[in-house]
From TrEMBL:
GO molecular function, one term: nucleotidyltransferase activity
InterPro entries cross-referenced by the UniProt entry: MobA-like_NTP_Trfase, Nucleotide-diphossugar_trans
Keywords, in A-Z order: Transferase
Keyword Transferase in record: yes
Superkingdom per UniProt: Bacteria
MobA-like NTP transferase domain span: 5-161
Gene3D superfamilies from the UniProt entry: Spore Coat Polysaccharide Biosynthesis Protein SpsA, Chain A (3.90.550.10)
Keyword Transferase among UniProt keywords: yes
Protein name stated in the entry: Nucleotidyltransferase family protein
Pfam families: NTP_transf_3
Length: 190
């Protein structure tokens, strides 16, 4: 099975105060470490969707070995970035979708979802029963997800309307979003 990786890194980070793609953590920018995580998990291709301050992200981030696409409608919400990224994937049996602001996700969590990859599969990570990221979308669902992705909901409506396998990942990862500077892991904030 060919599993692509899709990194959504286009937002302005209004609650955070700056685009989260440019947030440093552990000596790397969020966008760099998340792209490297998808590559380390064996995703192929890895597509990174940029939007807010895309030129700055390109200038500051080392994003070798990934496909970078710009979402001209990034300010309309995550839905447009999801559509932009899925269009850029090309041929794949499934895609693992990860937002740039989940630094606690690990290769082990990605592998749990990737092990389920088939064109008909929908799966998402859960942490102590709470839904989170990454999300695995089989290629049979790409068109439906693109048709329903709007605003900041991303694939939520589509996932809620379909059967989704929940994969517990709390033992191997932390799925918490970083929405504010205070959400950064204390021991790694730079």
């Amino acid at each position: 099975m060919r599993v692509a990786g899709l990194l959504l890194a286009a937002g302005a980070g209004r609650r955070f105060g700056s685009p989260k793609a440019l947030v440093p953590l552990g000596g790397k920018l969020f966008v760099e470490s998340t792209a490297e995580l998808l590559k380390a998990a064996g995703c192929d291709p890895v597509v990174v969707v940029l939007g807010a301050q895309a030129d700055v992200v390109r200038a500051k981030a080392s994003l070798d070995g990934v496909t970078i696409v710009d979402n001209p409608d990034w300010d309309t919400g995550m839905g447009s970035s999801l559509r932009t990224g899925l269009h850029a994937i090309g041929i794949a049996d499934a895609v693992v979708v990860l937002p740039v602001d989940t630094p606690g996700v690990t290769v082990a969590a990605l592998h749990r979802l990737m092990a389920l990859a088939e064109p008909k599969t929908l799966a998402r990570a859960v942490y102590h029963g709470e839904i989170g990221h990454p999300v695995l979308i089989g290629s049979d669902h790409f068109a439906g997800v693109m048709a329903s992705a709007a605003g900041d909901q991303g694939a939520r409506d589509y996932l809620n309307a379909n059967t989704v396998r929940h994969v517990e990942c709390a033992d191997v990862a932390d799925g918490a979003d970083v929405d504010h500077p205070g959400d950064l892991p204390r021991n790694q904030a730079t």
